[in-house]
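Components:
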Amino acid sequence: MSLTNYLVLASILFTIGATTVLLRRNAIIVFMGIELMLNATNLVLVTFSRMHGNLTGQVMAFFVMVVAAAEVVIGLAIIVSIFRTRRSASVDDVNLLKS
Amino acid sequence: MHSLFSVAVQTAPATGAFQSGAWLLVAVPLASAAILLLAGRRADRWGHWLGVAASSFSFLLGLGVMLSLTSLPAAERVRDLHLFSWLSAGTLTVDAGFRLDPLSLTFVLLVTFVGSLIHVYSVAYMEHDRDRRRFFAYLNLFVAAMLLLVLADSYLLLFFGWEGVGLASYLLIGFWNHQTPNAVAAKKAFIANRIGDLGMLIAIMLMFATFGGVDFATVHGHVAGTAPGTLTAIGLMLLLAATGKSAQFPLQSWLGDAMAGPTPVSALIHAATMVTAGVYLVVRSAPLFDAAPTARLVVVIVGAITLVFGAVVGSAKDDLKKALAASTMSQIGYMILAAGLGPIGYAFAIFHLVTHGFFKAGMFLGAGSVMHGMDDQVDMRGFGALSKYMKITWITFGLGWLAILGVPPFAGFWSKDKIIESAFVPVAGSPWQAWVFGTVALLGAGLTSFYMSRLFFMTFHGTRRWDDGSGTPPALAAGTTVDLNHQHPHESPRLMTVPMIILAIGSVTIGWLLSLGSGIVGWLEPVTGRVAHEADPVLPVPVLMTVTLVLVALGILLAWRQYAAVLVPVVPPRGSVLTRAARKDLYQDDVNDALLVEPGTYLTRSLVFGDHQVVDGGATGLARLTVGAGSLLRRVQNGYVRSYAATMLIGLIVLVGAVLAARI
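Structure:
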């Protein structure tokens, strides 16, 4: 099986994630979209690691996972905090800095 | 042509306690001025006496320096006192130093002697002024600056003093600056002087460019071998400076208005000393002018014009002080004329300057005394018959009057006659000069006699033209319907009359005293050079003297017939065209307005307009552009996270696209 298929899959996953981030209003769903994009990236890194025969890509993928874990913690905490104060999880309602 | 051989004069360093202490001449009045200005109201009670003491100290020290010079042989009477290294910029180095020689010492003594007397006079004159202390501070500042001017050994230091006296003059003309006309007069004097100062600056720059230095020794030592054109340019620029400071044509218009200052100021600054600085400058620059005959001819022409100009204006003015100011202008015209005549005239210019300093200061103090007794009134048409009420003022003023007329043996006779004779001495190559300038000088003597007699008779003689409160109306010219001023004329206090008496004695004797032996001409020889053989005037001297005296007598007679023998109208009659023009200073102000002030105003206005439209328009236009761009860009910042994310994504795609495009 060609390694190209993995790249195609990663592209599809990334596109779905990006579309989710851009189109959905619910903060949780947007968050899931971000996670999807990160994982698509991981897939690309691992694929290229395989392609070039060294471990740099895999190491990078581990880094991304660690950062994503930390990001999920903080992001969810922010979303919960916003939901508590504004009774909404819509990202369009969070525009206090503008007005 | 005069064969001029200068006495072998060498400058030597100053020796002895008096000469090396000469810096105190300037320092003491300056320190006194600083104390008076800084001490504030605390010094109100004794401040004026400190001012008198500082000025008197300078006089005594000046006397000491002069005695130490007279004890030396004539050839060694030029001394240089090095003070400190003043400034050094590139190839220009200027040392601050004093030049102690007969010329500067003559000025020092005149300034400090007349100055001290006027200080004493001012103690009484300004007694009721709450700012008397400030007045004395300015007077001391003036004395210090004037002494610096005459003692300086370089044109730059001289310029420093030159500006100092200009400042003091400005401060004192506008001393009562709570009245707008006084403040305006002060500004007018300052601005007119600025034009002259510009000439001085250009002259100094030309000297530096040509000779590489600005001290007298360098400049005067390098005159020989310099292009005549350069020397003429320097001479003309120096003359411009002199016309500004000495109120000569065409910069004379400020002097009449300068009479807005207190009368002692008019006596000291605008008659006896500061306005003569231009004459000093010309005489001091004698080696320059000797080598530039064209510049000298212009000097004579300026002097001749001013001499007639001032006399004509003085004949029509009804304001006592302004008539005296016009007379000052005219007399300084005589001095400038004499200075422009070259080696034969320098000494006589200074001679007339000294005698004029005495009699004109005396007459101004007399005018102040009259104003003191007449409730500060200056219109001579409201005076008359004051001789009965102010005996001392009348006599001292009368002696000054005889002195300025040139009646022998009073002071003016000795100096003015010499100038008239010198003006008649033929100049090689242009015989017309002697006749033209001689005639002008002669005519000036007659005019002087007329306007001074007019002033004297209108003030002190004739019938009284004021209300003495006794109920008997004075005899008045037919058709007078105006209300007369209620006056109680009285003699001034002794502090005022004593300086007047001393100056009057000077007016009588100084001319004769300074002609004893070789006199002031011999005394000034180390500076002005000696004329080996004095060429004879085109007319014999006794004839000239007789004609002068006849003209003077005619002037007195005419004035007596018009202003003492008949009733003088209180309201000035319409007068002839010339009278009306002379009352308005021969339209000098109108000419200045039309030529300089109006175009200047328009230029300023157009600059303001341009500033508003172009400069401000550019600045505000740029600001408006920024604001517009900002409000356009603000629309992008809508606060929706998703649109920001979309922007980032689009940016990323564009970037990747660009990279790929570059690769492929």
